[in-house]
Amino acid sequence: MDRQVNETSVPSNTRPGKSTAKYPAKYSAFSLIKHGLAKSDWPRAWREHDLKKSYDVVIIGAGIHGLATAYYLATNHGITNIAIVDKGYVGGGGSGRNTSIVRSNYLTPEGVRFYNRSVHLYQDLSADLNFNIMFGQMGHLTLAHNDSSLRTMRWRAEVNKLEGIDSEVIGPDDIKQIVPYMDTSTNTRYPIVGALFHPPGGTVRHDAVNWGYARGADVRGCEIHQNTEVLGITTIGDEVTGVTTNRGQISTKIVVNCTAGWASLINAMVGLKMPIVTHPLQAAVTEPVKKFLNTVVVSGSLHVYVSQTDRGELVFGASTDPYASYSMRGSLEFTEELAGHVLELIPSIAKMRVLRQWAGLCDMTPDFSPIMGFTPVKGYVVDVGWGTYGFKAGPVSGEAMAQLIATQRVPDIISTFDFARFAEGRLVGEKGAAAVGH
Ligand code: PYC
Fold first, then answer.
1. What is the pTM of this model?
2. I want to staple 308 with a disulfide (CB 3.0 to 4.6 A). Which of 108, 132, 286, 293 is the partner?
3. CATH number assigned to the domain with residue range 52-135+203-275+366-438, chosen from the 4 options 1.25.40.340, 3.50.50.60, 1.10.3080.10, 3.30.930.10
4. Of the candidates 205, 201, 212, which has an alpha carbon nearest to the alpha carbon of residue 178?
5. Whose CA is nearest to atom 3 of ligand 1?
6. Ligand 1 centroid to 65 CA: how many Å?
């Protein structure tokens, strides 16, 4: 295995899955109507299996990263003897707990290129997966409330433009045109002085993406094993030989860590320690109202982001909780602070009621960038450390990890996210592009 060689990344106009999709008739539009009218049981979107003794690849984590990796391994490289194991259920971790924002307006050229590839994959994903992922590119506004954040927005806009991404800094009058309900006056505690406007940004329906990838991987022969907890990873010398689960032992030469929240615990099974600290991130959703917010709005200074779903609910998120924890409980402090900050931006929603709140786990790295690629343990590869960026990166990560596993070479598009960068002082500082200050 050659761990050091880089390879040209996949060209941006490829359409993985398009030509090879072979969904059975039970997924046709006619069959959907038939099942709807007959009120019969819906066919399962993916099958259950006994655990085999051996697989070519074992992927830990049935979230978007693990499922997309399996899907692209099968679709782009013909590797299908894959088990995706998860101690919970498909999309039950960060992939079902995020606020589903997709954008590519990052700060570093590496980040911009990487997330832009994901935006392109998302654009074609409904067709590729034969599953409506409801990707709405309604635009994305990151508000600046002071000179220093405006300077960062300008920097991002310039880097974005150089990479061919639609992004520009606009003033309060233009912001008011895009979001008429926003208080852009100067009478507020934190007046809005400008914003980074990114028209290709938007949101997807996260469950649909998870389910679409799960079904696509299943149809191509990969096995999804829910309720299958990894208890250990076996090695001989510095080489992976298998995985011990609560359902039995599997032998394999390749284990992929695609977990969020539990990345450090899985790494410890092969004796690896990475600079990852896990923090909860909370989110909330309101009752539905008539559509009035046609873009994603983010305020780093006020620690809040908000979008409106097609059903009319407002989906809110904030910064990560300020302490390391594996707890996924919501807190009253979060809701109180969130409400206070949101009302400074959009005072007219004061009477809306919050219906639900929840939390997910974010594996934060020192430079707010992921850790992807080979590790000192042969056969153990990682796609971890996603902090608060993981969901939007699912498609490009899956595509790149599949290429890395199939070719045993690091694709250019992820080469800067290697584990060695921390020891070698090559950090990829993306903090300035975080949705909110952390
Ligand atoms: O990176 O856009 C983002 C984001 C939103 C919520 C968490 N991360």
1. 0.93
2. 293
3. 3.50.50.60
4. 201
5. 435
6. 16
